[in-house]
Protein backbone atom coordinates (compact mmCIF):
# COMPACT_ATOMS: atom_id res chain seq x y z
CA UNK A 1 0.00 0.00 0.00
CA UNK A 2 2.83 2.39 0.86
CA UNK A 3 4.45 1.73 -2.53
CA UNK A 4 1.17 2.56 -4.30
CA UNK A 5 0.71 5.71 -2.23
CA UNK A 6 4.28 6.77 -2.94
CA UNK A 7 3.86 6.14 -6.67
CA UNK A 8 0.59 8.09 -6.78
CA UNK A 9 2.16 10.95 -4.82
CA UNK A 10 5.11 11.06 -7.19
CA UNK A 11 2.79 11.19 -10.21
CA UNK A 12 0.72 13.97 -8.65
CA UNK A 13 3.80 16.08 -7.85
CA UNK A 14 5.23 15.56 -11.33
CA UNK A 15 1.91 16.44 -12.92
CA UNK A 16 1.59 19.59 -10.82
CA UNK A 17 5.15 20.62 -11.70
CA UNK A 18 4.31 20.13 -15.37
CA UNK A 19 1.13 22.19 -15.00
CA UNK A 20 3.04 25.00 -13.28
CA UNK A 21 5.66 25.00 -16.02
CA UNK A 22 3.09 24.94 -18.82
CA UNK A 23 0.86 27.52 -17.15
CA UNK A 24 3.58 30.13 -16.54
CA UNK A 25 3.37 33.28 -18.66
CA UNK A 26 6.55 33.97 -20.60
CA UNK A 27 7.45 35.97 -23.72
CA UNK A 28 6.96 32.79 -25.78
CA UNK A 29 3.56 31.84 -24.34
CA UNK A 30 0.23 33.09 -25.78
CA UNK A 31 -0.46 35.09 -22.61
CA UNK A 32 2.87 36.86 -22.90
CA UNK A 33 1.93 38.37 -26.25
CA UNK A 34 -0.82 40.44 -24.61
CA UNK A 35 1.65 42.60 -22.68
CA UNK A 36 3.08 45.81 -24.05
CA UNK A 37 6.42 44.28 -23.17
CA UNK A 38 7.38 41.08 -21.38
CA UNK A 39 11.16 41.01 -21.45
CA UNK A 40 13.53 38.18 -22.30
CA UNK A 41 13.67 35.65 -19.49
CA UNK A 42 10.74 37.24 -17.65
CA UNK A 43 8.17 34.92 -16.11
CA UNK A 44 4.81 35.16 -14.37
CA UNK A 45 4.40 32.06 -12.23
CA UNK A 46 1.36 29.81 -12.34
CA UNK A 47 -1.20 30.22 -10.96
CA UNK A 48 -1.35 33.98 -11.57
CA UNK A 49 -3.61 36.41 -9.78
CA UNK A 50 -5.99 38.79 -11.54
CA UNK A 51 -4.27 40.22 -14.61
CA UNK A 52 -5.84 42.74 -16.96
CA UNK A 53 -4.81 45.81 -18.90
CA UNK A 54 -1.76 43.94 -20.20
CA UNK A 55 -1.30 46.36 -23.10
CA UNK A 56 -0.38 49.05 -20.56
CA UNK A 57 2.07 46.85 -18.62
CA UNK A 58 5.83 46.61 -19.26
CA UNK A 59 7.94 43.99 -17.46
CA UNK A 60 11.73 44.01 -17.85
CA UNK A 61 14.14 41.23 -18.73
CA UNK A 62 14.61 38.38 -16.23
CA UNK A 63 11.96 39.66 -13.84
CA UNK A 64 10.10 36.99 -11.86
CA UNK A 65 6.49 37.56 -10.82
CA UNK A 66 5.47 35.08 -8.12
CA UNK A 67 2.37 32.92 -7.81
CA UNK A 68 -1.03 34.61 -7.37
CA UNK A 69 0.35 38.08 -8.04
CA UNK A 70 -2.29 40.47 -9.40
CA UNK A 71 -1.24 43.03 -12.01
CA UNK A 72 -3.91 45.40 -13.24
CA UNK A 73 -4.29 48.66 -15.10
CA UNK A 74 -7.56 50.54 -14.86
CA UNK A 75 -10.70 49.79 -12.89
CA UNK A 76 -12.00 47.06 -15.17
CA UNK A 77 -10.88 44.99 -18.16
CA UNK A 78 -11.39 46.58 -21.56
CA UNK A 79 -11.08 50.23 -20.51
CA UNK A 80 -9.18 52.54 -22.88
CA UNK A 81 -6.30 53.98 -20.85
CA UNK A 82 -4.57 55.92 -23.62
CA UNK A 83 -1.44 55.42 -25.70
CA UNK A 84 1.24 55.14 -22.99
CA UNK A 85 2.19 52.38 -20.57
CA UNK A 86 0.97 52.81 -16.99
CA UNK A 87 2.69 50.04 -15.03
CA UNK A 88 6.43 49.61 -15.59
CA UNK A 89 8.48 46.99 -13.74
CA UNK A 90 12.22 47.05 -14.43
CA UNK A 91 14.62 44.21 -15.18
CA UNK A 92 15.79 41.55 -12.71
CA UNK A 93 13.02 42.22 -10.20
CA UNK A 94 11.31 39.65 -7.99
CA UNK A 95 7.71 40.25 -6.91
CA UNK A 96 6.64 38.02 -4.02
CA UNK A 97 3.67 35.69 -4.18
CA UNK A 98 0.23 37.06 -3.45
CA UNK A 99 1.26 40.68 -4.08
CA UNK A 100 -1.02 43.19 -5.81
CA UNK A 101 0.12 46.02 -8.09
CA UNK A 102 -2.83 48.17 -9.11
CA UNK A 103 -2.13 51.03 -11.54
CA UNK A 104 -4.39 53.73 -12.92
CA UNK A 105 -2.06 56.62 -13.73
CA UNK A 106 1.61 55.69 -13.30
CA UNK A 107 3.61 53.14 -11.30
CA UNK A 108 7.36 52.87 -11.95
CA UNK A 109 9.37 50.09 -10.31
CA UNK A 110 13.11 50.26 -10.99
CA UNK A 111 15.62 47.51 -11.70
CA UNK A 112 16.53 44.86 -9.12
CA UNK A 113 13.59 45.62 -6.84
CA UNK A 114 12.67 42.68 -4.61
CA UNK A 115 9.51 42.29 -2.54
CA UNK A 116 8.34 39.86 0.09
CA UNK A 117 4.94 38.20 -0.30
CA UNK A 118 1.62 40.02 -0.05
CA UNK A 119 2.89 43.49 -0.85
CA UNK A 120 0.31 46.01 -2.10
CA UNK A 121 1.25 48.87 -4.42
CA UNK A 122 -1.30 51.31 -5.84
CA UNK A 123 -1.44 54.79 -7.32
CA UNK A 124 -5.14 55.28 -6.53
CA UNK A 125 -7.04 55.75 -3.31
CA UNK A 126 -10.62 56.25 -2.27
CA UNK A 127 -11.67 59.72 -1.10
CA UNK A 128 -14.17 60.78 1.55
CA UNK A 129 -14.66 64.44 0.63
CA UNK A 130 -18.46 64.19 0.67
CA UNK A 131 -19.59 63.00 4.10
CA UNK A 132 -23.03 62.02 2.76
CA UNK A 133 -21.96 59.84 -0.19
CA UNK A 134 -20.74 56.29 0.42
CA UNK A 135 -16.96 56.30 0.11
CA UNK A 136 -17.01 53.50 -2.44
CA UNK A 137 -19.19 55.65 -4.73
CA UNK A 138 -16.95 58.73 -4.65
CA UNK A 139 -14.55 59.07 -7.56
CA UNK A 140 -11.06 58.01 -6.39
CA UNK A 141 -7.93 60.12 -6.67
CA UNK A 142 -4.69 59.16 -8.46
CA UNK A 143 -1.08 60.09 -7.71
CA UNK A 144 1.99 58.51 -9.39
CA UNK A 145 4.21 56.03 -7.54
CA UNK A 146 7.94 55.51 -8.06
CA UNK A 147 10.13 52.84 -6.41
CA UNK A 148 13.87 53.26 -6.95
CA UNK A 149 16.18 50.57 -8.25
CA UNK A 150 17.70 48.14 -5.78
CA UNK A 151 14.99 48.60 -3.16
CA UNK A 152 13.49 45.93 -0.92
CA UNK A 153 9.84 45.93 0.19
CA UNK A 154 9.13 43.72 3.19
CA UNK A 155 6.26 41.28 3.59
CA UNK A 156 2.83 42.85 3.80
CA UNK A 157 4.02 46.40 3.18
CA UNK A 158 1.64 48.85 1.51
CA UNK A 159 2.79 51.54 -0.91
CA UNK A 160 0.15 54.27 -1.23
CA UNK A 161 -0.46 56.83 -3.98
CA UNK A 162 2.08 59.63 -4.25
CA UNK A 163 4.95 57.60 -2.77
CA UNK A 164 8.43 58.17 -4.20
CA UNK A 165 11.18 55.90 -2.90
CA UNK A 166 14.76 56.58 -3.91
CA UNK A 167 17.38 54.00 -4.81
CA UNK A 168 18.38 51.17 -2.48
CA UNK A 169 15.58 51.81 0.03
CA UNK A 170 14.28 49.32 2.59
CA UNK A 171 10.62 49.17 3.57
CA UNK A 172 9.95 47.19 6.73
CA UNK A 173 7.37 44.43 6.75
CA UNK A 174 3.85 45.73 7.41
CA UNK A 175 4.78 49.38 6.83
CA UNK A 176 2.21 51.71 5.27
CA UNK A 177 4.15 54.13 3.11
CA UNK A 178 3.15 57.52 1.72
CA UNK A 179 5.43 60.41 0.80
CA UNK A 180 8.93 60.93 -0.55
CA UNK A 181 12.07 59.27 0.81
CA UNK A 182 15.61 59.81 -0.51
CA UNK A 183 18.11 57.18 -1.66
CA UNK A 184 19.25 54.71 1.00
CA UNK A 185 16.29 55.22 3.33
CA UNK A 186 14.97 52.65 5.79
CA UNK A 187 11.30 53.29 6.52
CA UNK A 188 9.06 51.50 9.00
CA UNK A 189 5.79 51.87 10.86
CA UNK A 190 2.17 52.88 10.33
CA UNK A 191 2.34 55.47 8.93
CA UNK A 192 5.89 54.77 7.77
CA UNK A 193 8.66 57.11 8.92
CA UNK A 194 12.34 57.36 8.11
CA UNK A 195 14.20 55.35 10.77
CA UNK A 196 17.66 55.01 9.22
CA UNK A 197 19.58 56.55 6.35
CA UNK A 198 23.02 56.36 4.80
CA UNK A 199 25.68 59.03 4.63
CA UNK A 200 29.14 58.64 3.07
CA UNK A 201 30.74 60.04 6.25
CA UNK A 202 28.43 58.55 8.90
CA UNK A 203 27.52 55.27 7.20
CA UNK A 204 24.13 53.89 8.19
CA UNK A 205 22.71 55.91 11.07
CA UNK A 206 19.43 56.45 12.87
CA UNK A 207 17.24 59.36 11.89
CA UNK A 208 18.02 62.26 14.26
CA UNK A 209 14.43 63.32 14.80
CA UNK A 210 13.41 59.78 15.68
CA UNK A 211 16.31 59.43 18.11
CA UNK A 212 15.32 62.73 19.75
CA UNK A 213 11.73 61.54 20.12
CA UNK A 214 12.82 58.26 21.68
CA UNK A 215 15.18 60.09 24.08
CA UNK A 216 12.45 62.51 25.21
CA UNK A 217 10.00 59.65 25.71
CA UNK A 218 12.50 57.63 27.77
CA UNK A 219 13.25 60.63 29.99
CA UNK A 220 9.57 61.47 30.47
CA UNK A 221 9.85 64.65 28.37
Structural write-up:
- This is Acyltransferase.
- GO terms for molecular function: O-acyltransferase activity.
- This protein has 221 residues and is of the alpha/beta class.
- It has a single domain, classed as UDP N-Acetylglucosamine Acyltransferase, domain 1 (3 Solenoid), CATH 2.160.10.10.
- Helix content is 15%, strand content 30%.
- It is built from two helices and 24 strands.
- The protein has helices at residues 2-23, 208-218; strands at residues 37-38, 43-44, 51-52, 57-59, 64-65, 70-73, 87-89, 94-95, 100-103, 107-109, 114-115, 120-122, 124-125, 141-142, 145-147, 152-153, 158-159, 164-165, 170-171, 176-177, 180-181, 185-188, 193-199, 203-206.
- Strands 1-4-7-10-15-18-21 form a seven-stranded parallel β-sheet, with no helix packed on it.
- The longest helix has 22 residues, at 2-23.
- Residues 210-221 have low confidence and may be disordered.
Summarize the structure.
This is Acyltransferase. With about 220 residues, the protein is of the alpha/beta class.
Amino acid sequence: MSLVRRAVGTLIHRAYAAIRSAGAITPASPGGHAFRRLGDGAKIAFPPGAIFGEQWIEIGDHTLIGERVSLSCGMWPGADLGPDSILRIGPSCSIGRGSHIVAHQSIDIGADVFTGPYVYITDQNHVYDDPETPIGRQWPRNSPVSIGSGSWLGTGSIILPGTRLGRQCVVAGGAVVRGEFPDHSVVAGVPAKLVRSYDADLGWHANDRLVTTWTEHASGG
